[in-house]
Write a structure and sequence with these properties.
Strand content: 25-35%
Number of domains: 1
Helix content: 10-25%
Distance between the termini: 66 Å
Length: 148
């Protein structure tokens, strides 16, 4: 009985109490979608910023607590790399390494987000504008911002 309690029952209870972890990477998108406009939600540096087409984009810390995605990035509750890992590459530019990613909620059981979105990571060379910003929205053409 000691083996079963130690290696099966206790870990099972811990898993049930903490949950399965699906909310670990939960990005909630709500509010309006801005057409031809972007909101700065976080700045890594003067030249590296995160912009959103969504007026509200939050990170679900746990079942009851949400914070703005920019704050979650700043506090390193989640990283952009963790988000990229759960998305599919949909296009890339030959500008130094800019890449567009897409997340489809339906195909991924809404593990990352409650709705579909596109995330573009610009990495253009200085000759191509030197853009290092990140863009979040619902338009697959967001990658156009990498060369502006």
């Amino acid at each position: 009985m000691g083996f079963i309690r130690k290696y099966i029952v206790i870990p099972l209870i811990a898993l049930l109490l903490t949950g399965c972890g699906n909310s670990k990477y939960k990005i909630n998108i709500s509010g309006q979608v801005l057409n031809n406009s972007l909101i700065e939600i976080y700045a890594y540096s003067e030249k590296e910023k995160v912009y959103s087409m969504f007026t509200e984009i939050e990170y679900q810390v746990d079942k009851k607590y949400k914070i703005p995605l920019g704050e979650a990035l700043e506090k390193k509750v989640i990283t952009l790399e963790e988000i990229f890992e759960q998305m599919e590459v949909i296009s890339a530019l030959n500008d130094g390494g800019s890449v567009a990613f897409e997340y489809t909620a339906k195909n991924n059981d809404k593990k990352l987000s409650n709705q579909d979105f596109v995330l573009v990571k610009c990495n253009s060379l200085e000759d191509n504008g030197g853009n290092k910003n990140i863009y979040i929205g619902n338009d697959k053409k967001l990658i156009k911002y990498c060369n502006s």
